[in-house]
Amino acid sequence: MNILITIIIILAVIVVYVLINSMRLKKAVTNLTQEEFIQGYRKAQLIDLREPKEFDAGHILGARNIPSTQFNTRYKEIRPDLPVYLYCQNTGRSARAALQLKKKGYNQIYQLQGGFKTWTGKVKSKA
Hints:
alpha/beta; single chain; two-stranded antiparallel ribbon; five-stranded parallel beta sheet; 5 helices
């Protein structure tokens, strides 16, 4: 009986954690479809949060690579007065970056829904 109660408590804590994070994320970043993303990213700062090898293999034309592993030290390269368009392979890294930027006072933060893996637009590669 004690094990069952412990499991229920752990599950409840996990559910609350997920709900709080999703609410924080909704306040920090706007998810855009590929079409919406294309309409606005040329007038914004387009940031690819994937690692250099991923970036070199193919990235959205005009994107600047700031790997998520370097984001804490390099976020200052992003201007707070202009819209920021983020993407990574899925959306995990871009979501975390968006939360960090929001904490630092950035307000116009957008991410590509589904990440680069769903991108069907133009791609540039160094291969």
